Amino acid sequence: REAFDEAIAPFLAPNVAVLDIGSGREPTIPPADRPLGCRYVGLDISSSELRLAGEGAYDDIVVRDIATPDEQLEGQFDLALSWQVFEHVKPLDRAIENVHSYLRPGGGLVALLSGKFSAFALVNQLMPSNVGVSLLDRLLRREPRTVFRAYYHRCYSTALPRVLAGWSEIQII
What H or E segment, with its residue span, contains residue 2? Predict the structure, then answer.
C-alpha cells in the first residue's frame, strides 16, 4: 500500500477530481484523507456495493462497467484510482481506454492489480469458481456476494505496456 500511496500523493492537491474505480463499499481514499475541495466519484459495476460505503463516502456514484464507455465522464478527472480491480475486468484494453478518456490533460491513473501468473492467481484460475467462493467464505469469512470473478485479462508484465501504449508515460512496478 505504501508504494500506491506514494504514487497518488503528487495528484492530491486542493480541488482535485478523483475517479475511484471498483472500490464499492470501501473507497480507496477515506473521506478524512482527501484534500480540501476534492470531488470524489465512485464507479462500480455494483450499486449495492457502492451503497454499502455509506453516506459521505462519495460525492457522486456511477454504476457502470468500466469497460463500457460513458461520454459524460470524459475529461472530468485529474486522477483515476484502481485498487485490486483490473484483474476482474474484461476486456482490459477497453477499460484502460475509457479511463484514459476520463482524465484531463496531465491526469493520471494509479492502479494496483493482481498478476495473472502470481501463485494465488494461478490457483484461482485452476479452481472452479464455486469452490473458490466456498473456501473464501469458510476460511476468511468472506460473504459470497462480495466475491467477484477474476479474469486476469492482460494482467501480466508483457501485455500491460501494449494495453497502455496510448499513454504519454507509464511505469509498471
Answer: helix 2-8
Reported as a single tens digit per residue, the pLDDT across 57-97 is: 999 999 999 999 999 999 999 999 999 999 999 999 999 99
- 102: which 3 cell numbers? 476520463
Distances (CA, A) of 118 to 8, 11, 38, 87, 124: 24, 29, 35, 12, 10
Instruction: Indicate whether this model's pTM tops 0.85.
Output: yes
Amino acid at 119: A
Bridge partners, residue 63, by sequence: 44
Three-state SS for 141? coil
How far apart CA 46 and CA 25 sit, in angstroms, is 10
What CA–CA distance (Å, rounded) separates 17 from 172? 23
- Least Cα distance to 155 among 129, 121, 128 occurs for 121
User: What span, in angstroms and rounded, lies between the C-alpha atoms of 51 and 42?
Assistant: 10
